[in-house]
Amino acid sequence: MLAFRGQIVLPDRILADAVVRIAGARIVSVGVDKPWPGDTVIDLAGGFLAPGFVDLHVHGGDGHDFMDGTADAFRGICKAHARHGTTALLPTTTVARHDQCLAVLELCRRFQRGDSGGARVIGAHFYGPYFNFDARGAHPGAHVRNPVPDEYEQYLAFANAITTASVAAELPGAEGFVRACRARGVRCNVGHSFATFAQMRAAVDWGVRHIDHLFCAMSDRARLRLTQTYPMRGGVMEATLFFDELTTEIIADGKHLEPELLQLAYKIKGPDRLALVTDCNRALDMPDGPYLIGPLDGGEPMIKRDDVGLLPSGTALASSVAGMDHMLRTFLRLTGAPLAEVVRMASLTPARIAGVDDRLGSIAAGKLADLVVLDRELQVRQVLVNGQPVHSRETAGLELSRID
Fold first, then answer.
1. Cystine design at 194: which of 219, 275, 336, 351 (Cβ 3.0–4.6 Å)?
2. 261-276 per-position pLDDT tens digit
3. Which helix (H) or strand (E) holds 154?
4. What are 310's strand-pairing partners?
5. Cα(261)–Cα(251) distance, rounded to whole angstroms?
């Protein structure tokens, strides 16, 4: 069996001088123990063994977008994010034509059952086209639309390949869409929405339980005052912080949000209701320059500059260009939160939100051996999916031995 020896990141603490043993695709044991005779031992050399990261909201990487609608794009993105410690993800769609959305859902179903060569595909995050047009952000505007049963029933034919679906709560047809999703076991989010607090209360009653990228593309008191001077109303932001039923996510790339907003989200929602996400576009691990958000046919132009995605005007953000390892290090540095909690926000918390925490998201006996080896500076050294290496940066510093 393969045994990792050193500092093990558990959901609530760092277990020092511990051993994690894996056999095949599963974790066999975790504890302060000695390797067994016959074990091949990897000494972490002062680094950490962490659970593989789980990304709820990711669009692309390495020059690809999931909306390109090809198997090569899926493989390229999954391999790219594996380099950054992500071992499971939700391919996230954008606003696009109906046929393009269907093609991506078909590929999600295919990759759920197959090997991507990198991060595993849990299921789709169906994200767009059901956004508020004025809150669409960097998404292509031509195909933003309201949910109607004749269309979304075709998407829900892929319900077993859809993990979460997003909608702006204020749209006509939003309630019907949410209730149809929930009836088929699809979790529902609110995103790219200028809903009022009252509309958000209704959405929670319908079954919405998660909010996309907190503080981004959402209403708040100040925005809603533009349409009603008094009394002032809360919006999606205030509702997210108010309702305990709602989990949410944060883009901690150091570009989207100032430290105080990361700290506020962490203070109010806590590590069990706040997940780290990348919201990463195709420019991950690519040089600065022009790219598209969404499909090659009909995507929205953006540029990579100053380690972030921007609209060509430079006046608005267009998602991130960083992996989950960067989000982890940045959130840790800007908030001072304990390492075990920040790792949990990148692993067990998103796994629970996606409904896969029974097999992913933490280092525990019986769970799948999706693991990340981090060095002392929390740089990714090695990544395993199902107990098999999918990325190794280098082996120097990791001591390999066999116990006889």
1. 219
2. 999 999 999 999 999 9
3. helix 149-155
4. 303, 317
5. 11
- The residue that leads in pLDDT, 114 or 85, is 85
What's the token pair of residue 167? 């909608």
Domain with 130 in it: 53-354
pLDDT at 371: 98
pLDDT digits (tens, 9 = 90+) for 196-211: 999 999 999 999 999 9
* Per-chain mean pLDDT for the chain: 96
By the 10 Å C-beta count (0-12 exposed, 13-18 middle, 19+ buried), 244 is classed as exposed
Query: Which pLDDT score, from 0 to 100, does residue 404 have?
Result: 47
Clarify whether residues 135 and 177 are in a common domain.
yes
Helix (H, G, I), strand (E, B) or coil at 299: coil
12 included as an active-site residue: no
Catalytic residue among 279, 325, 357, 375: 279
Please state the φ and ψ torsions of residue 148, each to the nearest 5 degrees. -130, 140
CATH (domain of 42) = 2.30.40.10
Tens digits of residue pLDDT in 285-315:
999 999 999 999 999 999 999 999 999 999 9
Residue count (the chain): 404
Give bridge partners of residue 365 from the DSSP assignment.
none
In degrees, to the nearest 5, what angle opens at C-alpha 352 toward C-alphas 347 and 356?
90
Predicted local confidence at residue 349, as pLDDT? 99
Alpha-carbon distances, residue 114 vs 54, 80, 121, 123, 161 (angstroms):
18, 17, 9, 12, 13
Q: Are residues 145 and 286 both part of a single domain?
A: yes
CATH number at 243 reads 3.20.20.140
Q: What is the dihedral of CA 362, 364, 367, 372, to 10 degrees?
A: 50
Residues 6+ away with beta carbon under 8 Å from 34: 19
Task: Mark out the alpha helices in 61-137 (DSSP H runs).
Answer: 71-82, 98-112
Residues 6+ apart with CB under 8 A from 27: 20, 21, 363, 364, 365, 366, 367, 368, 369
